[in-house]
Amino acid sequence: MRSSPSSACSVPCWRPRGAGGFRSCSGELLAGILVGHTGLGLVDSSDPTLTLLADVGFALIMFVAGTHVPVRDAGIRSALGKGTARAGLAALIAIVLGVATAVLFGTGHAPLYAVLLASSSAALVLPVIDSLKLTGPSVLQATAQVAIADVAAIVALPIVIDPANAGRAALGAVAVAVSALLLYLALSRFEKNGSRLRLHRVSEDRKFALELRVQLTILFAFAALAVVSHVSIMLAGFSFGLAVAMVGEPRRLARQLFAIADGFLGPLFYVWLGASLNVLDLVTRPGMILLGVALGLGALLAHASARLLGLPLRYGLLAAAQLGVPVAAATIGTQLNLLAPGEAAALILGALITIGVATGAAGVASRRQAAGAPAAPGAPAAPPTSA
Questions:
Q1: Which of 69, 181, 325, 342 could pair with 288 in a Cys bridge, judged by C-beta atoms 3.0 to 4.6 Å apart?
Q2: pLDDT of 281-340, one tens digit each?
Q3: Taking the CB of residue 263, how many other CB atoms lie within 10 A of it?
């Protein structure tokens, strides 16, 4: 990574809060539940202004998630083969478990459950790996598996969540993907010919924050394209994030976007989502609690299957952490009235189960790595232990 603030990094330079981010998202959802429809009724999730701000926050969250996919990391590229095989095995098991879950609970949402069970979250897993300084071939392969599962699930979700309009959603997804590819080519051109650096210098001299303004304008344009083409702004934000990640995100811009996303609009989205959930449906419909548990355990089982292909169990469980895709499914399903009462809350419950187990697995991986690490140069050797 270069020291210049204006330099482009090979991976995003500003990470979210690691395992602390897990707890923060959960806390924001809980706060929304307490002040929203389930609790005190202080927040009206149907308010148009609040909904608009939540949509912007959702787009920013997915944009940041896209920038955290390590598409420029040479080490990850070398691990793509094994990562793809393990993500494929997890997807096959997810299909079987998704169909079984839909039949068992009578929801008819087998394609949706399969995508949820196979999904992962690069925006959650990669900061944890970074903060705990996990290294080694298994970590690279797990990272590749997470990146592949994350991208595939986000692309597939708009298609499977509403099968009746799958064709229209597929065309919209293609339109967004083509736009993201064209944007990547344009950004690469501006980066190579120095236009972005000149823009940065003018912005820095005159305090214009031009890079941030341009990025937000592009993000809103992508979101508008998604709405017109009948796909979720989730895909728009994520595609734009991938395009930026492929070029390299400047350090200063990453910090600015982190401040906007995690400082205001991201938490507002999670509060809005919590306010829109009716958790009381879980009390009156205990079957939905069982559905959430089944989805969480199913996702853990699907990703733990990577152990069959040589990945240590702790890394398979870490790769099972998910939030963006279940949150998107709950959001889209609630807005389009596609989910049964309590089903959206069940999706979030399943995601929280995977996060809890993944956090524990990350701790085990960190301790195993520390126990097996060689002593630092010059460090005294450990005294022999008596029998």
A1: 342
A2: 777 888 899 999 999 999 999 999 999 999 999 999 999 998 878 988 888 888 888 888
A3: 9
First to last CA, the chain: 48
* C-alpha pair distances (Å), 56 with each of 42, 52, 180, 223, 236: 21, 6, 18, 9, 11
Instruction: Map residue 305 onto helix, strand or coil.
Output: helix
Type of residue numbered 373: A
pLDDT digits (tens, 9 = 90+) for 229-274: 878 787 888 888 888 888 876 666 777 777 787 778 888 888 888 8
Contact 140, 126 (CB under 8 A): no
Cβ burial of 379 (10 Å; 0-12, 13-18, 19+) is exposed
Side-chain-side CA neighbours of 143 within 13 Å: the count stands at 25
For the record, the structure tokens of 315 come out as 């890394």
From CA 58, how far away is CA 65, in angstroms rounded? 11
